[in-house]
C-alpha cells in the first residue's frame, strides 16, 4: 500500500457519520420548555402542551416548506405575504357562507401553487436571485391582498374554516385533548419528512443545493427540483394561513414576520443557508423553540414589537452559529 | 495575438456611463409619451421633469449608499428601517426647536454610522450572510422603533423644512444635493485609493486580500456609507413630512427598490463593477414610471403590485444577460 | 577567503500532510539568484504544494525555508510578497473589470492623501510593460486581453514588488510558440537581472529550452536535481514516471471495426469545428491537445453541456445531438468532468449519494430513496467496494476521501448506468499513482464489456500509454490520429501545430514520422 493510501485508511476510520448528530435545537427547545414551565407549569400538562403546539403549528408548517427552498440554495421571502393573502382572500370569498369553504380552500391552494410556480420559474429560468424574486413576490402579493380587500379586513370566516385552527377534539385516549391544528401539523411534518429524507427528490434536492453544476452534469433535473421546492414552500404557507386564520382571525398583517422566522427556524434546526443540508425534524424543533421563546417573552411582559428585535438577534445568532459549526466540522 | 495597433486603439468601454444616458433618455421619452397619451401635456415641461427628479430624491440617496454596499460584494436590506429610524429620531430630538436642528441631525448620522459598523462587523467578523445579517438588523431596528413609537413623533422646525422645500431658482435644493452627492461619490470611486479598493474587494475578495488590501475595513466602510444614505433620506423625509413616523421606510419600500435601481443602473450584484451614475439613471427611471402610473391613474395598491413585478423584471433583464446562478 | 554566499532560496526537509494524503515528504529545493530552476513532476508529485508553502499559503509541518540565508516563516501570502517572493499561478487572478494599470498597482496605488495619481499609475505601468517588451495599453480592461497578455500583466504586477524570487506555475499552458518565446526572453532577462526564477512545468521541450537546473519530484519525494547540460529529456521523464510504462498501462485493443457506437460528422460550435470522429465498441480513444486546443469543448459538446450547433451525431445508429446533459444521458453517453470539485462532486454529501447521483437523476422524483441504492443485481455499495473505493463508511461526506477515491466514486456513478459511451476528462488529474493505475484498469474493463470510452487528457505520457487510438486537437480541430504506441515527439509536433497542414486522410491508422 502506498503512503498515501495508508493515510487515507487511517483517517477514514475516524470519519464522522453525518446522521445522528445531536441537534442544538432539540436542546434549546427542551431548555425553553423547562423555563416556561417554571412560570406556567400547565404547559407540561397535555392540555397546555397541546395548546402550545396549536399555537406553534403555523410557524412549524411554513418553516418546513421554507426548508426545501433553503436546502436547494435559495430563500423564500414571500411566504408571509402568502399567508396574509390566504387569510384575507378566504374571508372575502367565503364571506361567512360555510358552503363555500371547501372550494375557497381549494382556490387558495391553487393560488399558492401558482405563486410557487412563478417564484420557481423566475428564479430558475430568469436567473433572478431568489432573495430579489421572492421579495418582489412579497410586494406584489401583499399589494394584491390589499387591493383585493380595499386595504382593510373584509368578509368573515365561518366556523368550518376556522375549525382547522380552533377545533379541539376531546376525550382522546391518552392525550386528553387533540387540536385539529396539531393533527394537520403532524400530517404535514410526516409528508415533508418523507419527501426530504425518503425520496429521490429529497436526496437530489440536497445535492442541488450542495453543487448544482455537478448535479446538472449528472443529469439531475435541477430546474424541476428547484421549482418544486418553491411550490412546496408556497403550499405550506397557504396551509399555515388556514391554521392562522382559524385561531387569529382576519387582519392585514396576519403573515408578517413569518418569512424571517421560518428562515431562523431552519437555521436553528441545522440547515445550511446556502444549501445542501437540513432536516425536517430539526426545522420543526427550531420553529417550536422560537414559539417557546416568544411565549416566554410574552409571559415576561415584553411588548410585541420588541419580539421582532429579539427575533432579529436570534436570526443573527443562529446564522453566526451555523457558520462557526461548519468551520469546526471542516 | 498582440497587435500594437489594436492594443493602442482598445479603449475601456465605460459601461456604467453608456447605460446611464440611455436609461435617462428612454425614461423621459416614456414619460412624455404617457403624458401626451393621457392628455396631460402640461406635464411635459421643466416643472414636470423637475417634479420627477424631486420624487426620486428619497430613493436616490438611499440607492447611492446601497451602490457602495453592492460594489463591495455585499448588500444592505436594513435601509428601509433605518430610514424610518432616522426620520423619527430626528423629528423627536428636534421637537420643533431650531436650535436642535444640527445636534439632532448629527446624532442621527452618528446612529446610522453605528448601524453601518454593526452590519459590516456582522458580515466580516461573524461571517453572517449579508442578506440575513442586514435583514435581521432591519428587524431589530423595526422592533425597537415600533416598541417606542407608534405614530408621528415630535416635529421638525420650519427652518429644517427648507431641505425638502427650498429651491435655488427652479431647481429644488434636494435635487441639487442628490446630484452633488452623486458627483462626490463618483469621484471617490474613480479617483481615490479607497475607490480602487472598493472595486477590488468586490471583484475578487481573495485577490484583493492577497494584494494587501484591508478588505474588512472596506466592507465596513461601504456599509457605513449605505447606512448614511438611508439616514440622510430619513432626514429628508422628516423635513418633507414635517415629522417622522415609523412606517415611512416600509411604505417607501426602500430596501428592494434601492437594490433594483442599483442593478438596473449596471452595477452587478456580485460586486466589482458598476457605479453611481448608473444608479441615478435607474432612480430616474423609477421616478418616471411612478409619474406615469399616477398619470394613468393606477390604484395605489395596484401600484405596489406593479412595483414588485417591475423590480423583478428589471433584475431579470440583467441577470439573464450575465448568466446568474439560478438560486 | 569568503564562503559562498547562501543561495537566494533554500527550502530544506519540507514535510506537508493533508487529511488522507502526504503531499511532501522531506523535500529540499534550492534556487540561486540569476538561475532558472525547473521543477518537474507529474500531477500530484508535490510541485504545487511546495510552491504554495513558499508563497505562504500553507505552512509546513516540518522543514525550514531560508531566503538569502535568513530563516523565514510565513503565515500569510502577504509576508511572502513583502520578502520579494512572487508567485504567478496558473489561474490568473487579475480583476477583469479594472484596467491594466489598476491591476498592476493593486494594493500599492500611488497617490497623495488617498487620491490616486493616475498619471503616475499609467506611466509606471507603461514603463514596466515596455521593459517586458509588451505592447499593451495601460488603460485597457483586463478582460479585453488575451491570456498571454494577461500573463505579462501578472508578471509586471509581480515586479512592482521588487521580486527576488519569481515562481511561474505552468506559464506556457495557454501560449502559442511565439508567445512562449517572448516569455522566455523575459525570463532570461529577469535571470540576468539577478532574480531567482522557479519554473514549474512538465513540458519537456520548454523545460530544456529555458532551465539551467532541473529538479524532479515524484510521489511527494525529491528524486534528483541535475544541471540541464548533464541530463536528457529521457532521463527526466524516467525519473518523473519511474516505472516501465508497459506495466503501468492496460493492454491495448483494437476496436471492433464494424459499426461505430458513436459517430460524429462535421460537428462544430463556437470553439470547435469540423469534428469527424468514430468510436467503436471495446476501444479507448484518447484525445490530447495543449491548452486551448478545444479538447474540453469537444467533451462538453458531445455531452450536450455546450452543444454542437453544426453537424450530425449518432449513437448506436440513432441520430441524436444532445442539447443538454439529460438528453445525452438518455442517448447513452456519460461524462466524468475534469473539475472534480467544481463539477463532479457534491462535497458535503455522503459518498453513496455522490455515487447514486446519475441513477437518481434518471429515476422518478417521488420514488423511495432506497430503491436507487438497491438497483441492479449488485447494488451501489457493492459496486463501490468492487472498485475499491476506500472510506470509513459510505455515509461519510465525500470531501473527506482522497482524490483517487473521489474520482472512483464519480466513475462508479456511470458504471452503474453503463452507458455505451463514456467520456472522461482528465480522469487522473490530481490523483496518486496507485489510483491512476486502478482507473485505467477500470476503463479497460468497461470497454472490454462492449462499451467505448473517450478520454481527454493533457498528460501526454498517459495518453500514449492508455490509448488504443490517439487523436490530437489543435485550434478547435482534430488535426492528427495515431495508433497505440506513438512517440511523444510525433504527437507533440501535431499538438503544437507544427504539422497542421497534413489532414486526417494522411493519418489513417498510422503515424507519419519525420
Your description of this structure?
The complex is a heterotrimer of chains A (330), B (327) and C (514). With 330 residues, chain A is mostly helical. Chain A has helices at 3-13, 24-39, 46-71, 79-94, 101-124, 130-149, 159-166, 180-198, 200-210, 212-217, 222-248, 258-268, 280-299, 304-328, and strands at 168-172, 176-179. Chain A has a two-stranded antiparallel sheet. Mean pLDDT of chain A is 84; it is low at 1-21. In chain B, helix 3 (46-71) crosses helix 14 and helix 8 (173-191) crosses helix 9. Chain C is built from 19 helices and 22 strands. In chain C, helix 13 (351-362) packs parallel to helix 16 and helix 16 (403-417) packs parallel to helix 17. Chain C is globular. Residues 500-514 of chain C have low confidence and may be disordered. The interface between A and C is large, with 45 and 59 residues.
Break the fold down into its secondary structure elements and pairings.
The complex is a heterotrimer of chains A (330), B (327) and C (514).
Chain A: H1 3-13, H2 24-39, H3 46-71, H4 79-94, H5 101-124, H6 130-149, H7 159-166, E1 168-172, E2 176-179, H8 180-198, H9 200-210, H10 212-217, H11 222-248, H12 258-268, H13 280-299, H14 304-328
Antiparallel strand pairs in A: 1-2
Helix pairs in contact in A: 2-13, 3-8, 3-11, 3-12, 3-13, 4-5, 4-6, 4-11, 5-6, 5-11, 7-11, 8-9, 9-11, 12-13, 12-14
Chain B: H1 4-9, H2 15-37, H3 46-71, H4 79-94, H5 101-124, H6 130-148, H7 162-165, E1 167-168, E2 171-172, H8 173-191, H9 193-203, H10 205-210, H11 215-241, H12 248-252, H13 254-264, H14 276-296, H15 300-321
Antiparallel strand pairs in B: 1-2
Helix pairs in contact in B: 2-14, 3-8, 3-11, 3-13, 3-14, 4-5, 4-6, 4-11, 5-6, 5-11, 8-9, 9-11, 13-14, 13-15
Chain C: E1 9-18, E2 21-31, E3 36-40, H1 47-54, E4 62-67, E5 70-72, H2 77-82, E6 85-88, H3 100-104, E7 111-112, E8 115-116, H4 118-131, H5 147-160, E9 165-169, H6 177-192, E10 196-200, H7 204-210, E11 213-218, E12 221-227, H8 233-241, H9 245-248, E13 260-268, E14 275-280, E15 284-288, H10 295-302, E16 310-315, E17 318-319, H11 325-331, E18 333-336, H12 340-344, H13 351-362, H14 369-373, H15 380-386, H16 403-417, E19 421-425, H17 433-448, E20 452-457, H18 460-466, E21 469-474, E22 477-483, H19 488-495
Parallel strand pairs in C: 3-10, 3-11, 6-9, 9-10, 15-20, 15-21, 18-19, 19-20
Antiparallel strand pairs in C: 1-2, 1-4, 4-5, 7-8, 11-12, 13-14, 13-16, 16-17, 21-22
Amino acid at each position: 500500500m502506498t503512503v498515501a493510501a495508508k493515510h487515507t485508511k487511517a483517517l477514514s476510520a475516524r470519519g464522522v457519520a453525518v446522521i445522528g448528530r445531536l441537534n442544538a435545537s432539540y436542546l434549546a427547545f427542551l431548555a425553553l420548555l423547562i423555563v416556561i414551565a417554571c412560570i406556567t407549569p400547565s404547559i407540561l400538562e397535555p392540555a397546555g402542551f397541546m395548546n402550545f403546539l396549536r399555537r406553534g403549528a403555523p410557524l412549524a408548517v411554513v418553516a418546513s416548506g421554507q426548508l426545501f427552498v433553503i436546502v436547494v440554495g435559495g430563500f423564500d421571502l414571500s411566504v408571509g405575504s402568502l399567508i396574509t393573502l390566504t387569510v384575507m382572500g378566504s374571508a372575502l370569498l367565503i364571506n361567512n357562507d360555510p358552503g363555500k369553504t371547501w372550494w375557497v380552500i381549494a382556490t387558495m391552494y391553487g393560488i399558492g401553487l401558482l405563486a410557487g410556480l412563478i417564484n420557481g420559474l423566475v428564479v430558475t429560468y430568469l436567473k433572478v436571485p431568489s432573495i430579489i424574486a421572492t421579495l418582489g413576490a412579497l410586494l406584489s402579493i401583499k399589494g394584491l391582498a390589499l387591493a383585493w380587500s380595499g386595504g382593510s379586513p373584509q368578509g368573515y370566516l365561518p366556523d368550518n374554516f376556522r375549525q382547522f385552527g380552533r377545533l379541539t377534539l376531546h376525550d382522546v385516549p391518552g392525550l386528553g385533548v387533540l387540536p385539529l391544528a396539531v393533527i394537520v401539523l403532524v400530517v404535514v411534518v410526516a409528508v415533508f419528512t418523507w419527501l426530504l429524507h425518503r425520496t429521490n427528490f429529497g436526496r437530489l434536492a440536497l445535492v442541488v443545493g450542495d453543487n448544482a453544476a455537478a448535479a446538472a452534469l449528472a443529469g439531475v433535473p435541477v430546474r424541476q427540483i428547484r421549482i418544486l421546492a418553491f411550490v412546496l414552500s408556497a403550499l405550506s404557507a397557504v396551509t399555515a394561513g388556514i391554521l392562522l386564520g382559524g385561531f387569529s382571525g382576519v387582519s392585514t398583517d396576519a403573515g408578517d414576520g413569518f418569512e424571517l422566522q421560518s428562515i431562523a427556524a431552519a437555521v436553528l434546526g441545522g440547515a445550511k443557508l446556502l444549501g445542501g443540508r437540513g432536516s425536517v425534524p430539526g426545522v420543526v424543533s427550531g420553529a417550536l423553540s422560537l414559539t417557546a421563546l416568544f411565549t416566554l417573552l410574552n409571559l415576561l411582559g415584553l411588548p410585541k414589537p420588541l419580539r421582532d428585535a429579539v427575533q432579529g438577534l436570534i436570526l443573527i445568532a443562529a446564522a453566526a452559529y451555523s457558520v462557526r459549526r461548519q468551520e469546526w466540522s471542516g | 495575438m498582440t497587435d500594437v495597433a489594436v492594443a493602442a486603439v482598445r479603449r475601456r468601454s465605460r459601461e456604467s456611463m453608456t447605460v446611464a444616458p440611455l436609461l435617462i433618455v428612454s425614461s423621459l421619452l416614456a414619460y412624455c409619451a404617457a403624458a401626451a397619451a393621457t392628455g396631460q401635456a402640461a406635464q411635459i415641461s421643466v416643472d414636470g421633469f423637475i417634479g420627477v427628479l424631486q420624487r426620486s430624491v428619497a430613493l436616490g440617496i438611499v440607492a447611492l449608499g446601497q451602490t457602495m454596499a453592492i460594489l463591495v460584494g455585499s448588500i444592505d436590506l436594513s435601509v428601509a428601517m433605518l430610514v424610518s429610524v432616522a426620520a423619527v429620531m430626528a423629528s423627536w430630538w428636534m421637537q420643533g426647536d431650531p436650535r436642535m436642528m444640527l445636534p439632532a441631525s448629527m446624532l442621527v448620522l452618528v446612529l446610522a454610522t453605528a448601524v453601518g459598523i454593526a452590519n459590516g462587523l456582522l458580515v466580516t467578523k461573524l461571517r453572517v450572510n449579508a442578506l440575513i445579517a442586514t435583514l435581521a438588523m432591519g428587524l431589530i431596528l423595526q422592533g425597537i422603533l415600533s416598541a417606542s413609537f407608534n405614530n408621528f413623533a415630535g416635529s421638525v422646525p420650519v427652518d429644517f423644512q427648507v431641505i425638502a422645500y427650498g429651491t435655488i431658482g427652479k431647481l429644488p435644493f434636494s435635487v441639487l444635493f442628490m446630484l452633488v452627492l452623486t458627483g462626490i461619490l463618483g469621484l471617490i470611486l474613480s479617483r481615490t485609493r479607497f475607490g480602487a479598493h472598493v472595486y477590488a474587494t468586490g471583484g475578487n475578495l481573495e485577490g484583493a486580500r492577497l494584494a494587501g488590501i484591508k478588505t474588512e475595513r472596506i466592507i465596513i466602510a461601504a456599509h457605513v456609507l449605505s447606512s448614511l444614505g438611508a439616514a440622510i433620506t430619513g432626514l429628508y423625509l422628516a423635513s418633507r413630512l414635517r415629522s417622522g413616523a415609523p412606517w415611512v421606510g416600509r411604505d417607501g419600500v426602500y430596501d428592494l427598490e434601492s437594490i433594483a435601481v442599483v442593478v438596473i443602473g449596471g452595477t452587478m450584484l456580485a460586486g466589482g463593477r458598476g457605479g453611481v451614475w448608473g444608479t441615478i439613471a435607474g432612480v430616474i427611471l423609477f421616478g418616471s414610471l411612478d409619474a406615469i402610473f399616477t398619470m394613468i391613474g393606477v390604484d395605489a395598491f395596484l401600484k405596489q403590485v406593479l412595483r414588485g413585478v417591475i423590480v423583478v423584471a428589471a433584475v431579470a433583464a440583467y441577470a439573464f444577460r450575465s448568466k446568474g446562478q439560478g438560486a | 577567503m569568503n564562503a559562498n554566499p547562501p543561495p537566494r532560496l533554500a527550502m530544506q526537509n519540507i514535510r506537508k500532510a493533508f487529511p488522507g494524503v502526504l503531499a511532501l515528504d522531506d523535500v529540499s529545493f534550492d534556487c540561486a539568484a540569476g538561475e532558472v530552476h525547473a521543477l518537474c513532476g507529474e500531477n500530484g508529485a508535490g510541485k504545487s504544494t511546495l510552491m504554495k508553502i513558499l508563497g505562504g499559503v500553507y505552512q509546513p509541518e516540518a522543514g525550514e525555508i531560508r531566503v538569502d540565508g535568513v530563516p523565514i516563516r510565513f503565515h500569510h501570502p502577504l509576508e511572502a510578497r513583502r520578502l520579494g517572493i512572487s508567485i504567478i499561478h496558473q489561474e490568473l487572478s487579475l480583476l477583469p473589470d479594472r484596467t491594466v494599470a489598476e491591476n498592476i498597482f493593486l494594493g500599492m496605488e500611488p497617490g497623495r492623501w488617498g487620491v490616486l495619481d493616475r498619471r503616475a499609475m499609467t506611466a509606471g505601468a507603461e514603463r514596466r510593460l515596455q521593459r517586458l517588451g509588451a505592447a499593451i495599453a495601460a488603460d485597457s480592461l483586463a478582460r479585453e486581453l488575451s491570456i498571454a497578455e494577461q500573463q505579462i500583466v501578472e508578471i509586471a504586477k509581480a515586479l512592482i514588488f521588487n521580486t527576488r524570487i519569481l515562481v511561474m506555475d505552468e506559464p506556457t499552458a495557454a501560449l502559442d510558440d511565439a508567445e512562449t518565446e517572448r516569455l522566455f526572453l523575459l525570463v532570461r532577462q529577469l535571470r540576468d537581472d539577478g532574480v531567482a526564477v522557479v519554473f514549474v512545468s512538465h513540458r519537456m521541450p520548454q523545460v530544456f529550452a529555458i532551465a539551467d537546473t532541473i529538479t524532479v519530484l515524484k510521489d511527494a519525494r525529491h528524486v534528483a536535481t541535475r544541471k540541464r547540460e548533464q541530463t536528457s529529456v529521457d532521463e527526466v521523464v524516467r525519473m518523473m514516471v519511474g516505472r516501465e510504462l508497459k506495466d503501468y498501462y492496460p493492454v491495448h485493443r483494437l476496436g471492433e471495426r464494424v459499426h461505430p457506437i458513436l459517430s460524429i460528422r462535421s460537428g462544430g460550435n463556437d470553439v470547435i469545428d469540423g469534428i469527424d470522429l468514430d468510436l467503436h465498441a471495446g476501444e479507448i480513444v484518447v484525445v490530447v491537445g495543449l491548452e486551448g486546443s478545444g479538447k474540453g469543448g469537444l467533451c462538453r459538446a458531445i455531452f450536450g453541456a455546450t452543444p454542437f450547433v453544426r453537424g450530425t451525431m449518432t449513437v448506436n445508429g440513432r441520430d441524436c445531438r444532445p442539447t443538454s446533459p439529460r438528453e445525452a444521458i438518455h442517448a447513452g453517453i456519460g461524462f466524468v468532468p475534469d473539475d472534480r470539485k467544481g463539477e463532479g462532486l457534491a462535497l458535503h454529501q455522503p459518498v453513496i449519494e455522490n455515487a447514486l447521483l446519475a441513477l437518481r437523476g434518471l429515476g422518478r422524483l417521488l420514488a423511495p430513496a432506497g430503491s436507487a441504492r438497491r438497483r441492479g443485481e449488485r447494488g451501489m455499495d457493492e459496486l463501490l467496494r468492487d472498485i475499491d473505493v476506500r472510506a470509513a463508511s459510505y455515509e461519510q461526506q465525500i470531501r473527506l476521501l482522497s482524490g483517487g477515491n473521489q474520482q472512483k466514486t464519480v466513475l462508479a456513478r456511470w458504471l452503474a448506468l453503463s452507458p455505451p459511451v463514456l467520456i472522461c476528462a482528465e480522469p487522473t488529474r490530481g490523483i496518486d499513482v496507485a489510483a491512476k493505475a486502478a482507473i485505467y484498469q477500470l476503463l479497460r474493463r468497461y470497454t472490454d464489456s462492449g462499451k467505448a470510452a473517450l478520454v481527454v487528457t493533457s498528460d501526454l505520457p498517459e495518453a500514449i500509454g492508455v490509448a488504443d487510438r490517439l487523436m490530437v486537437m489543435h485550434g478547435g480541430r482534430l488535426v492528427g490520429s495515431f495508433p497505440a504506441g506513438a512517440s511523444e515527439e510525433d504527437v507533440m509536433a501535431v499538438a503544437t501545430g507544427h504539422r497542421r497542414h497534413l489532414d486526417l486522410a494522411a493519418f489513417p491508422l498510422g503515424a507519419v514520422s519525420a
